[in-house]
């Protein structure tokens, strides 16, 4: 697997190195938080940082589960059906089932996939 190099933005915490160790832009997260409701006026400085980390962990877990489905299919290219299968086979992603089931293709999670996902 490819590793991040010395000049990678991932290691230095952004392209310029001044943004901290966050992979997602905090200003964008804060903007989304403010648009979430009319009653949201002010947001503490720590809240976007916590949301950023939560989003990173969520994306990482979804990518791992999707990659496991790709590997079970003996392929090296992750596609939409792999993500759909991972969502359907994993209980913690139940809130995404409506989003992935609207795709038109009916993808069912096999019991083998479900056993693999629950054990990790």
Characterise the protein shown here.
The protein is elongated, with a radius of gyration of 18 Å. It is built from six helices and no strands. Helix content is 54%, strand content 0%. With 120 residues, it is mostly helical.
How is this structure best summarized?
With 120 residues, this protein is mostly helical. Helices cover 54% and strands 0% of the residues.
Distance between the termini: 20 Å
CA radius of gyration is 18 Å
Mean pLDDT: 78
Oligomerization? single chain
The helicity comes to 40-55%
* Number of E-type strands: 0
Number of helices: 6
**Proportion of beta-strand residues:** under 5%
Reported for the largest beta sheet, the result is: none
